[in-house]
Write a structure and sequence with these properties.
heterodimer, A: mainly beta, B: mainly beta, 5-stranded antiparallel sheet, 11 strands, about 0% helix, about 55% strand
């Protein structure tokens, strides 16, 4: 168990709908990352938040948005859903080791989104 | 643009042998490189980190090498077991945001 929790575990919805995925990072971790993993695809970085502020952006669609709240949990909002958005969505958290300059990420169990 | 390449074909080996997985990268000078293990439908799990000034790192049956001249990392599992069967991802990190860039992973299948 990585200490990162994600809800829901599974989500089935229809095209055009909007969903919200939730992530709670490990205790003490300030950074939250969101990734998308489609079937047979690698992890695609979407967005990173650090202590409530957006830190880095990857290939995130305009239909997708995220935020990190004061209690450090994060939500990923996906709207106008399309069939191609069906994927595993992972959240990861980290506390950057300032002394070592590294950033090991701890991943949650993921949310499997199916768009019908 | 930055590119990471891992063997797209599955690696099949016999139990007890050493598995060697390759990670090559271009257009990037990472400060460190990490290896993760991912089981089907699960989140990746961190295994090892090696920094740019380190040549080799070991942890139990795992060994990682990092050649910044060749822009390549090798990941070895010695005395492999069927339980080692999984997809292994390499990830490059560094820079102001410490964003990790992941490879697509290599599927390892260890036959009993």
């Amino acid at each position: 168990d990585s200490g990162v929790t994600q809800t829901p575990k599974h989500l089935i919805t229809a095209t055009g709908q909007r969903v919200t995925l939730r992530c709670s990072p490990r205790s003490g971790d300030l950074s939250v990352y969101w990734y998308q993993q489609s079937l047979d695809q690698g992890l695609q970085f979407l967005i990173q938040y650090y202590n409530g502020e957006e830190r880095a952006k990857g290939n995130i669609l305009e239909r997708f948005s995220a935020q990190q709240f004061p209690d450090l949990h994060s939500e990923l909002n996906l709207s106008s859903l399309e069939l191609g958005d069906s994927a595993l969505y992972f959240c990861a958290s980290s506390v950057r080791s300032l002394a070592l300059g590294t950033d090991t990420q701890y991943f949650g169990p993921g949310t499997r989104l199916t768009v019908l | 643009s930055q590119k990471i390449e891992q063997n797209s074909e599955a690696l099949n080996i016999q139990e007890g042998k050493t598995a060697t997985l390759t990670c090559n990268y271009t257009n990037y000078s990472p400060a460190y490189l990490q290896w993760y293990r991912q089981d089907p439908g699960r989140g990746p799990v961190f295994l090892l980190l090696i920094r740019e000034n380190e040549k080799e790192k070991r942890k139990e049956r795992l060994k990682v090498t990092f050649d910044t001249t060749l822009k390549q990392s090798l990941f070895h599992i010695t005395a492999s077991q069927p339980a080692d069967s999984a997809t292994y991802l390499c990830a490059l990190g560094g820079g102001a945001t410490n964003k990790l860039i992941f490879g697509t992973g290599t599927l390892l299948a260890v036959q009993p």
